Amino acid sequence: MKEAVDRNALTTLLATFGLDHDVGKLTPQIMNATPDAAPGWPGIPARWTSSAKTGVGTALGATSRVWYTLSHGILNEVYFPRPDQAHTRDLGLIVTDGVTFFSEEKRHARSKTTYGREGIPTHRLINTCRDGRYRLEKQILADPRRDVVLQRIQFVALRGALSDYRVYVLLAPHIANCGNGNTAWVGEYKGVPMLFAERRGTALALACSVPWLKRSAGFVGFSDGYQDLIRHKHMTWEYQRAENGNVALTAEVDLATAAGTFVLALGFGWNAAAAGHQVLASLIQGFDAARSDVISAWQDWQSSLRPLAPATPRDLYPVSTAILRTHEAKGFSGGIIASLSIPWGSAKGDEDLGGYHLIWPRDLAESAGALLAAGAKSDIRRVLHYLHVTQDADGHWPQNMWLEGTPRWDGIQMDETALPILLVDLARREGALEADGVAALWPMVHRAAAFIVCNGPVTQQDRWEEDPGYSPFTLAVEIAALLVAAELAVAHGELALARYLRETADAWNASIDRWIYVTDTDWARQIGVDGYYVRISPVDEGGAASPLEGFVPIKNRPPDQSTAPAAHLVSPDALALVRFGLRAADDPRIQNTIAVIDALLRVETPNGPGWHRYNGDGYGEHEDGSPFDGTGTGRLWPLLTGERGHYELAAGRPEAAEKLLRAMEEFANEGGLLPEQVWDTADISERGLHFGRPSGSAMPLVWAHAEYVKLRRSLADGRVFDLPTQTTQRYLVDKTGSPHTIWRFNHKSRTLSVGNTLRLEMLAPAIVHWSSDAWRTVHDTETIDSGIGMYIADLPTAQLLDGSNIVFTFYWSRVSRWENVDFTVVVRSTP
Fold it and tell me: How large is the average pLDDT for residues 711-732?
């Protein structure tokens, strides 16, 4: 977008500040800080701010590389040049009368946030003083041409005259995701007074459309403007520099010159001059021009989406699609972060470097599926390209990562490798891929399928990032992904691979009940069912009688509450067996599990039903409402209400699904943002916790908005939008079983169904030395290379009788070494 320099506008703006410069002779310059350094180094320990956002926004297009968040009536974290790099804690106003009155808007005003236009992230905030003395009316947006966030603010005196008040701006830099180590100073750019801060190659600048009367830089808790104003009710400190600490910048707005209305411009760059340039250019162009451009671009994008008629008066569809799009990076096209927030941020410091502004491949795939449900086909192509680029060489994706693909945490979650395969298939079915799209993505799918085959069905972490073992959600997406990969393998002429992938999927599907369905437990007897699917069962190492008899560690709980029997833990994750087409909605095992889920995890709130992730969950506020600090009590997750809505639709109950959609809408806050969790018990008003309303967890959670959009699409279609066709045909229509029982080192099956073939799978070539008659007769079977890193030996066990024992060991061909351990599998009529 070409930008013309308006020299007259620049001269007029400089004249506003009392500067008489020849514009043609201006050169980039940042004034040096004076020796008047602020005391109190390094300030109090840095903290982030509330995750209870009421708005998030960005401009479309790659020219503007800033993202902003709002809560409590003020600007919070601002991100640049990518949405995983936060540079501010918050920017708000303080109002005084200069003598006795002190009011900080985020604490002492009632706030209301609305979109400037529906589904377009320009925001209006109205903050009304609780004492009835003033009102602040704000319009906030990202300048679409620059790395600047603009606020047009009108101060209205509700009591007395404008001249009775003083307005101060308070900015807390947290550059490069850190509150410590920042340097702040007061200076000028092109003769225009500004406030600056920098750290590690990034700088910010703050300027106003009217002159500053006073400016100061200080250390938080000691010499910052808040300390000055709360003590003196006017600025008495004018420190020029605060270096290498937790810093804050303060300035007084010339309210008289502004006549109550002024514009604040917060800009960013690789140094202070670049940031100052951005700010000054934005002020010269003006707020109205920026607003017009932002609205036009967002309107064009929203109008390109599939219309879905509002299901209720509180329609979250345009807000949700805007939130999905807002969280996409620009320099890393297709990278959608999990949330522009830090859960319980006010209790978190620099140790929580990433918050939720990272890529979780699972959340990314869920978000992309929702954009596809909304008809944003070009957006999906960007996401698939991003996934292709960030896939590790071995085929998996990191647990989470920075936008360039560098891992943040080092866990492996098998669903995060499977879901991108399902996304490729969904995009193909929706006609979102270009002519060669599937062929271009086949290498990515091939690598991912190979990783699943070689490392599944167990997962190092379940989708809640906590435990290893057999998880119903993970199993469902793994099996579905293998069938999709098999179909694509056929299309690419790899028929042997397709057969092996399907055989693996069939064998895993046939083993699900053995791995995760329990019967005759205390919960089953108490609730009146014969059994249910558990949340997760431990890795089958061959020691206990069954993985279901093992114990599961419970994260985020005190040490004396950190383990539980696998059979005692239940989760709505079991609904994934229906969502991904492995079990019918009316399957008695599913219906039994639903009864247990509802008995243990469902809570009726004033806004509708919600569900816990699992019984005993510790990820949430403490019972007294204090923030999660490594331990706590899990609360209700709105996205689980959406997942239950999909189950109800699959079960042929669309009216029930619509009620759950409405519950999701009621869980949203005034800005239409859905939280990660909602409070599940009696109000604790002093902590802002109310029954059925957002807790202090991440908000917005993009995954929750994705589930909402997909449920809207599913209701409009009358069927589950992302239900794979391959699984439904194979397991629900054709009712395909499996002649194989698979044994491998990461899940050592102890039993084999009568009539089944025992398939041994290894990650290296071997000769299987085995016997079915206590070594009286010995056989050697050489493994066959599957072509994707797994070596297979099928033992002819189909004729063995109930009670037979197969004993085997391995000779490793490449290293000429025996395993020197015998393994046993018992043939059972009911394994």
Answer: 97
